[in-house]
């Protein structure tokens, strides 16, 4: 799960920083690499969920324990945010970067990069990831 967090959060931070730099060619390269890593991160995240359930079943854990239910909800929020925001945003960002001239970001690309919704969703997403890590490590309410 830590690898999944590193891939998702790391690549998101990197593409955000490069996008704000205005270097269109660098952004295209980062987004191309992100296209290769995103499925790996998603697969590792889903594997982590599967292994979590296997551990719960074989370790005689109560699947309705409060900390596990909180973990289920946080995992669902992460998946929902990925499919509802991050994947469509990355698709739009890639299309805008491809349509931009090499020497400067187009108006569409700048509008996407500077949209306040991105900062809010990324902040929310970061809090959810941190909460999930905390719940899985500390097991509160158990």
Give the structural class.
mainly alpha
Q: Which residue ranges are poorly predicted, with pLDDT under 50 across at least 5 consecutive positions?
A: none
Q: What percentage of amino acids are in beta strands?
A: under 5%
Whole-number average pLDDT?
91
**Biggest sheet statistics:** none
Number of helices: 5
Helix content: over 70%
Elements, N to C (H/E): HHHHH
Cα(first) to Cα(last) distance is 21 Å
Count every beta strand, where a strand is a DSSP E run of 2 or more residues: 0
Tally of discrete structural domains: 1
Instruction: Tell me, briefly, the overall form.
Output: elongated
Q: Over all CA atoms, what is the radius of gyration?
A: 18 Å
Write structural notes for this entry:
With 142 residues, this protein is mainly α. The protein has one domain (2-138). Helix content is 85%, strand content 0%. The chain is built from five helices and no strands. The protein is elongated, with a radius of gyration of 18 Å. The protein starts with a helix and ends with a helix.
Core attributes:
single chain, 142 residues, mainly alpha, 5 helices, 0% strand, elongated
Quick recap:
This protein is 85% helix and 0% strand. It is mainly α and 142 residues long. The chain has one domain.
Q: Layout of helices and strands, plus pairs?
A:
Blueprint: H1 2-21, H2 24-58, H3 66-99, H4 107-114, H5 116-138
């Amino acid at each position: 799960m830590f690898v999944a967090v590193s891939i998702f959060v790391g690549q998101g931070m990197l593409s955000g920083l490069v996008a704000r730099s205005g270097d269109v060619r660098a952004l295209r390269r980062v987004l191309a690499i992100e296209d290769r890593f995103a499925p790996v991160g998603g697969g590792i995240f889903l594997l982590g969920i599967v292994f979590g359930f296997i551990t719960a079943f074989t370790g005689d854990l109560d699947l309705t324990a409060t900390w596990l239910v909180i973990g289920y909800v946080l995992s669902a929020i992460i998946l929902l945010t990925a499919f509802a925001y991050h994947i469509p945003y990355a698709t739009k960002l890639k299309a805008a970067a491809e349509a931009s001239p090499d020497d400067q970001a187009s108006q569409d690309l700048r509008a996407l990069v500077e949209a306040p919704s991105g900062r809010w969703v990324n902040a929310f997403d970061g809090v959810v990831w941190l909460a999930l890590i905390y719940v899985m490590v500390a097991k509160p309410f158990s």
